[in-house]
């Protein structure tokens, strides 16, 4: 999946996460996280974000996440939505990516 533009998914409401993705000049992915529970769950949030980037084959993107206590399934859904919006894809291949089985 090639990221071609800036995109956002989610909100800053309680129990949600706002994910912003944008293409960068390098092939490296970066993750910037703001969360009131970062000390407790920051590592897990980054792990979920990284897992989605790897499974979708995305490289060269900057991810900004503003977390308000989202569960892993919400983080996955917001990441997938933001990436598809940023890639301007019109179809989703959920089963092929095997994103929901841990």
Quick overview:
It contains three helices and four strands. With 102 residues, the chain is of the alpha+beta class.
Describe the protein.
This is Citrate lyase acyl carrier protein. Oligomer with a subunit composition of (alpha,beta,gamma)6. Its main location: cytoplasm. Belongs to the CitD family. InterPro entries: CitD, Mal_deCO2ase/Cit_lyase_ACP. The protein contains three helices and four strands. The protein is globular and about 30 Å long. It has one domain: Ribosomal Protein S5, domain 2 (2-Layer Sandwich). Strands 1-2-4-3 form a four-stranded mixed sheet. It is an alpha+beta fold and 102 residues long. The chain has helices spanning 38-56, 72-87, 94-97, and strands at 7-9, 17-23, 30-35, 61-67. The model has no long low-confidence stretch (mean pLDDT 91).
Q: How many domain units?
A: 1
According to CATH, the fold-level topology is Ribosomal Protein S5, domain 2
Principal-axis shape: globular
Radius of gyration: 13 Å
SSE topology string: EEEHEHH
The number of helical elements comes to 3
Indicate the CATH class. Answer: Alpha Beta
